[in-house]
Design brief:
alpha/beta, Rossmann fold, Helicase, Ruva Protein, domain 3, 4 domains, five-stranded parallel beta sheet, 14 strands, globular, binds adenosine-5'-triphosphate, binds magnesium ion
Length: about 475
């Protein structure tokens, strides 16, 4: 236990050195910070388990420091000390999450016994079967939440591939975090100071995608009123994220393959080519193997793209992460919306851990946002969940509709069924009406009309034209 790392935050160098010398002597690794702000920066990259902090410090004081620390590293043991104690301050420190408060001057052995007690408490709290997340993955985890085995392997893979320029193909169901992973690879790569340019190949009409990717010269086609550089050039020395690559049409697949092979491109209508240095990350939620077998996706392009394949697991295959995702999203939405929905009761959590999550993390995130908006404060219980999350299928669903009720009306039943499918599609696409319309195979304008007419609402789809 003595080999643990302890960070001391104190603006008074003498106290810091004195305490540090004692703790080093006891066998601890010791880090020092001159105030709360410095300590927060140092904690990011450290493996510290215990933090000692003075209360009166410039920039970020001890109380503020502990509060912020609780949001990023809630498991840390924090011990605060000050010469200017009063009961209100002590109460505030403990409320903010300090493990113990010591009044100065204190005996060093007394401090040591509180450190040991804190660490024992921490060990009890730590879930023994959870793999311990290495501190270097914590920054990644700020965005990509997960501590399950498959996520730890994913973090390791991201870290490894980030350093190379190899093309990556990310596959996984909708909402599993493909874009998040692509961004994480870029952010950890030597290209991070240059652009990360995402292009959604499914959202751009086929006839415009070529010019979007490679640019065009003025007058090369009707509407090309000015020369424009494409995403490839914008991503020069950076990363180009080709999302929904499975939707790219055959003629463009050939052109893309040529650019990948030659590392040079020809803008639409240009007479000469340009060199580009771009790292490609592609993603799709379609089964590319199958598209290749069906000859809808070029085999040679598939191999060129999938130098490093990354498959993201659906949420139902990493259920251990559901409680962590729930608490992280609760915290995030409470913070964003200044609401106080502090927790979810055990029955509700259990139901959500059982559910299959066809829309994966996006569906869970949207549900949590909706619950925080509706509840505003208190505890989320089973009653707050829509029926399907409680394992209850609604009588509105087609298979359960009975024809015997005297109030049965085919038009209403069909409309009800349609509404459910519309809401499901919006849920799946995180409220994106264009993408939802595509799933439903109807025009976006038709979808918007139905939503308006039937007064259907979906959080995240609040702007009528989005
Ligand atoms: N592991 C995760 N931790 C936190 N948030 C996540 C995670 N995975 C996905 N999300 C969130 O879920 C939403 C969907 O993620 P993302 O857009 O990366 O999914 P996708 O796999 O690209 O989906 P699609 O195929 O539909 O484009 C985003 O809001 C993202 O922030
Ligand atoms: Mg995506």
């Amino acid at each position: 236990m003595e080999h643990a790392t302890i960070l001391i935050a104190d603006d008074d160098r003498k106290t810091r050195d004195f305490v540090a010398a004692f703790l080093s002597h006891k066998g601890y690794q010791v880090l020092q910070a001159v105030d709360g702000q410095d300590a927060l920066a140092k904690i990011e990259s450290s493996d510290a388990q215990v933090v000692l902090t003075d209360v009166m410090m410039p920039r970020v004081n001890g109380l503020e420091f502990i509060k912020r620390l609780k949001t990023v590293r809630p498991e840390l043991v924090t011990i605060a000390y000050s010469a200017f104690a009063n009961s209100e301050m002590t109460a505030n420190l403990l409320k903010a999450g300090a493990f113990f408060y010591l009044e100065k001057p204190f005996q060093l052995e007394e401090l040591n016994s509180h450190i040991r007690r804190g660490m024992e408490h921490q060990a009890l709290q730590r879930n023994s079967f959870k793999p311990k997340l290495k501190p270097k993955y914590r920054a990644m985890m700020q965005e990509i939440i997960g501590e399950s085995e498959s996520m730890i392997s994913l973090f390791q893979l991201i870290e490894k591939v980030a350093g190379s320029d190899a093309t990556v193909l990310i596959q996984g169901e909708s909402g599993t975090g493909k874009e998040l992973v692509a961004k994480a690879i870029h952010d950890l790569s030597p290209r991070r100071t240059k652009n990360f340019i995402p292009v959604n190949c499914a959202a751009i009409p086929d006839e415009l995608l070529e010019s979007e990717l490679f640019g065009h010269v003025k007058g090369s086609f009707t509407g090309a009123i000015a020369t424009r550089i494409g995403s490839f050039e914008m991503a020069d020395k950076g990363t180009l994220f080709l999302d929904e690559i499975g939707d790219m049409k055959a003629n463009l697949q050939v052109k893309l393959l040529r650019v990948l092979q030659n590392k040079e491109l020809e803008p639409v209508g240009a007479s000469h080519s340009k060199k580009v240095d771009v790292r490609i990350i592609a993603a799709t939620n379609q089964n590319l193997d199958q598209l290749v077998a069906l000859r809808e996706f070029r085999e040679d392009l598939y191999y060129r793209l999938s130098v490093i394949p990354i498959i993201l697991p659906p949420l139902r295959d990493r259920r251990d992460d559901i409680p962590l995702l729930i608490s992280s999203f609760l915290e995030k939405f409470n913070r964003n919306k200044l609401h106080k929905v502090r927790e979810m009761d055990a029955d509700c959590m259990e139901a959500l851990c059982r559910y299959d999550w066809p829309g994966n993390v996006r569906e869970l995130k949207n549900l949590l946002e909706r619950l925080v908006i509706i509840k505003e404060s208190g505890t989320i219980t089973l009653q707050d969940l829509p029926d399907k999350y409680r394992g209850i299928t609604s009588p509105g669903q087609a298979e359960n509709v009975t024809l015997t009720g005297k109030d049965f009306c085919l038009t209403n039943a069909v409309e009800e069924f349609e509404n459910r499918l519309i809401l499901q599609a919006l849920e799946k696409t995180g409220g994106n009406k264009k993408a939802a319309a595509k799933i439903l195979n109807i025009k976006r304008t038709t979808l918007i009309e139905k939503l308006k007419k039937r007064k259907l609402t979906y959080p995240g789809a609040s702007t009528p034209n989005s």
